[in-house]
Fold this sequence. Notes:
- The structure holds two protein chains of two kinds.
- Chain A has a domain at 29-278: Cytochrome Bc1 Complex, Chain C.
- Chain A is 68% helix and 2% strand.
- Chain A contains 13 helices and two strands; from the N terminus they run ααβαααααααβαααα.
- Chain A has a two-stranded antiparallel sheet.
- By secondary structure, chain B is mainly beta.
- In chain B, 9% of the residues lie in helices and 35% in strands.
- The longest helix of chain B is centred in the N-terminal third of the chain and has 24 residues, at 2-25.
- The interface between A and B is large, with 38 and 34 residues.
Amino acid sequence: MKNSENMSQGLLKLLALDHAVDFLKNTTISSDALTWKRVCGSIATVLVILLFLSGAFMALYYSPYPGAAYDSVQYAEFDLPFGDVIRGIHHWSWNLLLVVMLLHMTRTFFTGAYKPPREMVWVSGVLLLLVVPLAIITGDLLPWTQAGYWTTRVRVSIISSVPVIGPFMVDLLQGGPRTGIVALTRFYVLHVIFLPAGIISLLALHFYFLRLKGLADPIMPSRLPKRNIALLPDMINRWLILFIVVTLAIGIATRFWFAVPYGDPADPSDSRFVPKPEWWVLFLNQLVSIFKGPFTIVGSAVIPGALAGLLLVLPFISRSPERRPVRRWKEILVAMLIAAAILGLSVMSWIEHFTSTVA
Amino acid sequence: MNRRLLSFGMMFLVIGCMSFGMYRIAQAAQLTVKVAHIKSAPAGLDDPVWKNIQAVSISMEGRDALSGRKETMAAKAAYTDTDIFLLFKWKDPTRSVTKQSWIFNGINWKHLPGDEDRLAILFEITRISKFATRGCAVTCHSPPELSKDQWVLATKNAPEMGDLWHWKAARSDPYKYADDSWLTIPGLLGEYDPNKQSGRRSDAGSGGDIKNEVADKSKPRYMPGPTRSGGDSGVLPAEDAVEITDYTIFKPGDVLTYRMPRKPAGSRADISAVSRYQDGGWILMLYRKLNTGHDDDVIFDPKKQYSFAMGLFDDAGDDHSKATEPLTLKFLKSDRNY
Lengths: 359, 338
């Protein structure tokens, strides 16, 4: 036993990792981090790691060329052992990541945990929530399916409708007006290099601020004595267990019940195809449908931008130290009204796109 | 502790419900023929298993000379661990199996006017650009900017390969198969008309038919011999034919097959067929190995879905057909047997 410990210490030293491990062992966090109430943050972290790992595997077989992209994805999915499971894990992980991040944020809002001194924890979290959809948007085009292609066309046309910067953004994104090989290459590079780098940076910032400012205390003080736990092994072991559980759960679910839906290969000349919005953009889609003509910008940029801005500045405009929801009823009411509006718009959009007769 | 467990359970319930919602939302909306898993191969057209499988109604629209005419076909599909079975049913007031048979009027031999009912199905062996969204428009009715007489049944690029199943009431059905061919870029190698550019190639092996005519095409060359091996369609198979040595034995009104089917073998005989003409329509079952092991055939992997398109030819010897929009063949999971 002693020998193996000495060996591992020696190996860590050899790799110059001993200081890093010591740092992790000496880093302590509140034991409150292990409660079920805070599990969403841990699940989100695990899902991000799962996305990176499954994405790295798929990248080994992916070919970012319009004539080959669809078949390369199909090959990885159907001709490689567990290819369908890995693609399923990638697909459902981002769906779940959005859900879990929203739950995490909702809890943070209701418990007032975003308030000073944790403003930057909140801001980095909101930025993460804004970057993840960009990764989803760029990822949608990569399999080069009809749905992915025409959904991207709709998104590009919405972006281009934004005055002044819209056309520039479209040029930057896809290298011109056409969604072709340049667009696919740029989306691929954004999806596998720049956006993951952004997510890692924001995640690191989120944890950095969290460590600096600490977890918010429970609103109702616990009768149990407060204690600290070590990041390594306590917290990291928890993440490892969660990683195994989440991987198995999604892997089994996608293998047996929820195979990733895929459609026909993209046909840029088939303008009859009408893409249907994914669940998380239903409300944005409805906003674009409501505001037309000269008011398009209101639905495509002003309202979504204002919402994102409001989320970002929330800790700076809500300065009261009061965290109990009943004492913050005005704030809570406004948030619930906004949530109800988003839900209402989503339902309207869903009815419009998914309950009409299909040919 | 119980409260914690309850809240944890509730959270996963919410996530689970939302996941289910996402799954539903993500479904594509297009005409799909679902292939149900069955434990054992259906015995034939009347096997009870077909009653449990839902039929899909497929619309077919007339092309070219048949423009404006419509047809509806009912399709069912099933698969076992080794084979795929497709069942089609369509109305056809006339059973056409004569294919320009010879008739003797006492002096001369003439061709009867009737032709042949046929069904053609095209799958992709390798990806055919835009086939999934345009169907036969990219292989049979193309290029659209050219007049019809310049159209070529072919793919556009060499790596693109199609698998063409061609059931012919007069020329393949007597041997209970659908002629298995494949599609590639145009060339003059087609056996169907050596002078016409075509991308159609017969699968390896033998089959097809022989024209029953003498060199000057004025009369038949063969008549039925003492044996019959090609089914009960009334059509004379080439293997049963013997050369006519004495034309005086024929009396006015005698009919002889003009296109004599040949016994299929090899990859060309991969697709078996069972058919029946009844109540003013055809019922046809085509079946084949999921993987024939031949390079000139599509491999069906139940994990995948396949684009295909069909053309229906009523009493026709030409390429005027009623055709479908592109369709999707999707295999249902094997955990639910019918």
